[in-house]
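Dear support,

Our group has been running a series of protein-ligand predictions, and this particular one with adenosine-5'-diphosphate is the one our PI (initials K.S.) wants archived with full inputs and outputs. We had some confusion internally about which version of the output was final, so please treat the block below as the authoritative record. The input we submitted was:
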Amino acid sequence: ATPTALLTGTGRGAQLGILIRGPQVLEDTRTVDTIVLDKTGTVTTGAMAVDDVVVLSDMDAPGLLRLAGAVEAASEHPIAQAIARHAAARGRLPETTGFSSAPGGGVRGEVDGVTVTAGRAAWLEENGIRPTGEQTAAFGTAEDAGATAVWVAVDGDVAGIITLSDTVKEGSAAAIGHLRRLGLRPVLLTGDNRAVALQVAAAVGIDAVDVRAGVTPAGKVDAVRELQAAGATVAMAGDGVNDAAALAQADLGIAMGSGTDVAIEAADLTVMGNSLEQVAQAIELSRRTLGTIK
Ligand code: ADP
Ligand code: MG
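Confirmed final output from the archive:
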């Protein structure tokens, strides 16, 4: 029997909605001692909401939002969906052509005859856009207030900032307690900024020293590798395109069932219920199943 069948056979695996890729996975659940958790969509709901549109040019806020919403409508990132939804609720969105995006970076496209670029500072820089010192200070102020902030540029110049917030999933804090009881050290890993990451970490009981923020998708792989090099056996839970490579690098990759296909394909184990409690249960159940069949 395959381990999936074994877990299903217990009734509990099926009941819990845990999908396991192969026999080795059970063994891996026994040895992991560290769990790297992606923030957005894993520890938090990923259902982000736009809080503010800060104009840093001669545009007006509705016009800025409309352009950003149009280009973000083509992306499946939680930030993108929030901006597109917010904009679409305030008026019909124009069409975007020539769309491109970088996971963990941002988006770019042509809207109404102008080029719209939205994302983090590094993505703007890649597109030859440099915010002024004053604009960077405004961005820092938004981030320091605990917001997720995104740059919006039009035709090569910064137009403004959109700030967003996310909510910690109900049950994430309790689940992290459960993971600790299973002997796992939780580490928070995110492409988002440090102030937001520290806020989330404090809310769920992850130590500030175990927060890695502002990390690119490649940086996520490096973070897992570094922990492994320091002797840890690493589980990683994530949901995004930006998590896929790190999930593959981890000794035990865990995808949220609501996650992107690439994340699920890269993972050893998928939890259909999308909760961290299910991640803890999956590890506990796999360890117990192993105990039974050995
Ligand atoms: P996380 O690790 O929290 O899931 P990501 O790695 O996906 O975050 O993204 C990191 C950062 O890149 C975001 O906080 C945002 O600044 C920027 N970013 C990524 N995708 C987009 C997008 N579609 N639009 C705007 N900004 C984006
Ligand atoms: Mg995520």
